[in-house]
Design a protein that fits this description.
- This protein has 2 helices and 4 strands.
- By secondary structure, it is α+β, with helices and mostly antiparallel strands.
- The chain has a 4-stranded antiparallel sheet with strand order 1-2-3-4, covered by helices on one side.
- It is globular and about 40 Å long.
- The two termini are 19 Å apart.
Length: 94
């Protein structure tokens, strides 16, 4: 899924930077991820686990799980927030 700037809630970009999440990763989660079971009512979510094999904040991690939450208001697709967890052995439930 290709996104443009209008799809991002203003606070989303700040959260992405804080959590080490790229726009390309968000696009991958939306196109290939599976439904996030913890979405609040009125909000949808997707999750994807990436092979990472890099350091984040001085610690090496094998995987990176990203959850993206979004909604449609008045027919407009809006990304609300994204969460990242670093580690290994994340569930890949679909």
């Amino acid at each position: 899924m290709k996104l443009d700037d209008s799809n991002f809630h203003p606070h989303m970009r700040d959260r992405m930077l804080q959590r080490g999440i790229t726009r390309r990763e968000i696009e991958k989660v939306l196109s290939d991820g599976w439904k996030a079971g913890d979405s609040k009512q009125g909000t949808s979510g997707k999750v994807f686990v990436f092979s990472y094999e890099k350091d984040w904040e001085g610690v090496h991690f094998e995987e990176k799980e990203i959850r993206v939450y979004y909604n449609f208001v008045g027919g407009e697709f809006t990304l609300l927030t994204a969460m990242a967890r670093y580690g290994k052995g994340f569930s890949r439930e679909r």
